[in-house]
Amino acid sequence: MTASPDDEAPRWLEPWSLDEGADRARALFGEHFGGEPDAIVSAPGRLTIVGDHTDYSEGLTLATVTAARTFVAVRRREDQALRVVTAQGDAVRGPGARWEGALDALAPGDDGWPSRVAGVIWALEERGYPVTGLDLAIDSCLPPSAGLGSSAALTASVAHACEAAWGLALDTEAGAIELAEACWEAENSYVGFPCGRLDTHTVLRCQDGEAVLLDFAEVPPALTHYPLYFPDYGLRLLLVDTGARDPGWREAYARRSRDASLAAATLGVSSLRALADEPGALARVRDIADPTVHRRARHIVTEDQRVRETVAELAGLGPAHDRFTEIGALMLTSHRSLRSDFGASTPELDIAVEAAMEAGALGARLAGAGFGGCAVALVRATQLDQVARAVDAVFDTYAVPRPRYLLV
Ligand code: GLA
Predict the structure, then answer these.
(1) Which pLDDT band holds residue 82 (cuts at 50, 70, 90)?
(2) 6 part of a folded domain
(3) For residue 53, which atom of ligand 1 is closest to its CA?
(4) Could you read off the pLDDT of 279-319 as tens digits, one per residue?
(5) Cys-Cys with 42: which of 69, 195, 272, 294 at CB 3.0–4.6 Å?
(6) What one-character DSSP code corresponds to residue 17?
(7) Among 46, 47, 49, 53, which residue has the most ligand 1 atoms within 8 Å of its CB, making it the best to mutate?
């Protein structure tokens, strides 16, 4: 008898170990370029705990990194050629699995994944590093287009590959900041996507097992490390990958960024963060006559405040259970603000969040830019499967394809 969908267990994605990721990148390299790479490097994805769509308003974010990573095998060439292959050619935007170019012919523009690779090399050259040709083989277990910073994982792993192949001495905090800025320039100035600094600075500066508070009022952003001790207290961050993303999400993101600038200009402040730091900030936001711009600004100003409160709970000394309950509540309020004020949620994300809460999660929210992709829920480790089954059941009720699950 074949099992009906109702009987199927939740679909879990297992992140690769560092050895497995390296073996895959090495095998792909050998298959396409022959021989051995000089180095194999990797970078994780970014998960926002609280604080989305604040970075481009000089705001605050509390973020961590995913266990899933992007791996790159690299070998230096002595000529101008760039040869790149990705195992994700079918899953990500671009010309397919392979791309070849030349250092003297790099031209800004968005042709999908290759422009992120070329953009990093271009940005490092602009910063004065002596560049040479490269052979690069890329493989990843990080779901693309899921709100987990897969573009930053790609640019950061390519930056590490350049660092290794060219022998750059950038394995310090200052070096990580330099690489994060180069990756941000690749995305903004080469690809032409107007993202903030959240993703690149998180994936290059946050270590496993910690959260980072990023303050974007400074360039480069100031960063404070906090131990992310949820597992020690029997809690986990559960990712629910809805597998669906609005194809127009890039335009929607750019519009949100323009609305944030418009809100600041309307109120005569340098950024919404400058306003958020003032007393009576929300009352000032009410002066924005355009109802959409008003709601967008209200999300950004209240989200900065939620980040402050979340960090205070994370670093606090009160009873752990109370603090985790409060962090969960802040995550949920953040989701509702992103949904109602910021218009960044989707029906699938809302279902995932509400179903996870119903099933006992302490908190849940969309993760990252939104417009589809992943939700993240703070869940008791003993209830992970129960929550995943409950979410699956609600997705079945709405006849929406079931999500996949991943632990951070
Ligand atoms: C994307 C962008 C980031 C940030 C988030 C939302 O991931 O790349 O800069 O704006 O969305 O917080």
Answers:
(1) very high
(2) no
(3) 12
(4) 899 999 999 999 999 999 999 999 999 999 999 999 999 99
(5) 69
(6) P
(7) 53
